[in-house]
Specification:
By secondary structure, this protein is mainly alpha-helical. The chain has three domains: 64 residues, lambda repressor-like DNA-binding domains (434 Repressor (Amino-terminal Domain), Orthogonal Bundle), CATH 1.10.260; 81 residues, 434 Repressor (Amino-terminal Domain), CATH 1.10.260; 62 residues, no CATH class. It is built from 15 helices and four strands. The strands form two sheets. It has a two-stranded antiparallel sheet with strand order 1-2. A two-stranded antiparallel sheet has the order 3-4. Strand 1 and strand 2 form a beta hairpin. Helix 8 packs across helix 9.
Amino acid sequence: MSELYKRIEQLCNEKQMSITQMCKESGASRGSLGDLANNRIQTLSSNTIQKIANFFNVSLDWLTGKTRYRSNQEYKEYNWGVSGPNFEAAFDFASLLAPMRKEQGVSFSEFGGVIGATEDQMQEIEGGFLPITYEQAEKLCNYLGTDVSQVFFDNELYDDEVPEKYHNNIKEWERKKEELDEEAKLESANMWREKSNTGTTALFLSQKEQRLLAAYKAHPELQFAVDKLLGINDEDTETVKIVARSEDDAPMTAEKVPKSKVKAALEDKSIKSDEDL
């Protein structure tokens, strides 16, 4: 028994009606259906198939076994909302692939076959009327020799900054970034070590952290801004601007000074000029 007849029979069973009743109501030839059931013919005329498809409100592609979706609406309902959490281009992504598809001479029929879509559905997908999942997007990209991340980057839709050397290989950059993130996690985990001989906790800094600390100490004029940005509240010190003496040409600097010294200097009546400092 052909797949076509099985699907027609399935539709009739769902509506709880016989093949004969369906033929009467749809105008399809009962004799042709009998021949199809008994393998005397392999298919039906396009006119008969169209009548049956219209009667059950399904697509010709589904009825003839070219797709698992009975209609474009069913395709849309199945695929919409099942994309990956970071894939927000379900309706728009295929249009980004259109220039590459055309350049490589890939037809809608061939391209749709990659994800189990018909030629008509692929046209709807590329036109932005039907969605695709992230997995389907990756399959289409792989077929064209690229990947989702690269397509986003090439169309200026990639969110992160990418070093120039990786502009033509975004996947490699993503792998490299994962490695760097993992290294940072390991460094963070190893920052605190237990000293067995004293039972005290020592702080071990990575080379990058040591460079950051050195830069922080070398630029006291920026420390207040950095502290504020990081939410560090040092209540015991105050940032004081240090101005050159009248005859000096040294630039103004800033330094953290204990508040007790600032208070003492302000209350000291003997300080009348910079010569007294």
